[in-house]
Amino acid sequence: MTSIYIHIPFCERICFYCDFPKKVGKKSEITTYLQALRQEIAMYDVPNTVDTLYLGGGTPSILNDEQFEIINDIVNKFTFSKNYEFTIECNPEHITPDKLKWFKKLGVNRISLGVQTFNDKLLRLLNRNHNKTMVIDAVNLLKKEGFTNISIDLMFAIPFQTMDMVIDDVYNLLSLDVPHVSYYSLILEENTVFNRWINEGKITLLDNELEALMYEEIISTLKKHYHHYEISNFAYSNYESKHNQIYWTNEHYYGFGMGASGYLDNVRYYNEDRVNKYLQKVNNSELPIMHQDELTKDEIIKEALLLGLRLIDGVNVKELNERYQIDVVKYFQQEFSELLQQGLIEVGENIKLTHKGLFYGNEVFSYFI
């Protein structure tokens, strides 16, 4: 499998909860960045045939015709495999007939819509630039133009959000009949407007008990309609994200662009997370890597557990033993014993989280960091 992530770090506005590598960019700056991105990719010996390609951000859907031409030039260097998956992240307000023409030209066959909530008041609080009607219109247009592999990103535990609001969001999601949904709880990050507002006492986070009740409501309802295949991800059969499963199964992948990370030959690398530093290195014909970590066998095995336990089916013991030439149950005997005692994991043919473990995932993962 050859998988590629390409980061487009530009947005029209910055969401108040977001700390991903991104910025509000001018047209000329975005074009300059894309030209450097093309140079960076040319520095790597990427296999010709690509199985998954993910264009993330930021907001890749803000690009104009000139900028999509550069992306098209980059993509044309690759040959897609028979059952490839090419995802682009979009905001609902950017789904127009002209943009969809570009997506078809590029070969995009999966759309990830950043919705977050259908509640217009909460959308304004998050500093999103769309409303509920725009989401419905976007999904309808996508389907009309033949895009059937649609994913929606939603968020819960937003300040001021009630259980009724979550139930309403789930109802609106189901009414759209999209084959994939990623449903994440809000995480407070340091360098965000939300964090500043918390410190100033303008908003408060929801308590853990209410957050857990919201998650329980979400998974219990969505499991009636979708395959719950990862802690925060639900899909119709055969619509699970191929690209993201590369991460969760600890496979190698390329990461290109400012702030992107990759995993090649057991080395995790992290690109410069400032545009000027990224451009400076690329323009000097240097790989724009900020730092990299060569993983030991022990670290690789721990990462395989940490990432694989995000999957509802967990990790297969036999496959793990063969892949890393170990007896994984003996290797993690103490960790598994403690987690079993707490009722957070099951150990059989697969090692996986229990239902209780889904609510304490970070505590489980901490055993393998």
Outline the structure in words.
- Helix 1 (27-42) runs parallel beside helix 2, helix 1 crosses helix 10 and helix 6 packs parallel to helix 8 (208-222).
- The longest helix has 16 residues, at 27-42.
- The chain is built from 16 helices and 17 strands.
- It is an alpha/beta fold.
- The protein has two domains: 3-248, Aldolase class I (TIM Barrel, Alpha-Beta Barrel); 315-368, no CATH class.
Topology, please?
Elements: E1 3-8, E2 10-11, E3 23-24, H1 27-42, E4 49-57, H2 65-75, E5 79-90, H3 97-106, E6 110-116, H4 120-126, H5 132-144, E7 150-156, H6 163-176, E8 180-185, H7 193-200, H8 208-222, E9 227-230, E10 233-235, H9 242-248, E11 254-256, E12 261-264, E13 267-271, H10 275-283, E14 289-294, H11 297-308, E15 315-316, H12 317-324, H13 328-331, H14 333-341, E16 345-347, E17 350-353, H15 355-358, H16 361-365
Helix pairs in contact: 1-2, 1-10, 6-8
Give the key terms.
9-stranded mixed sheet, 3-stranded antiparallel sheet, globular, 369 residues, 2 domains, TIM Barrel, 16 helices, alpha/beta
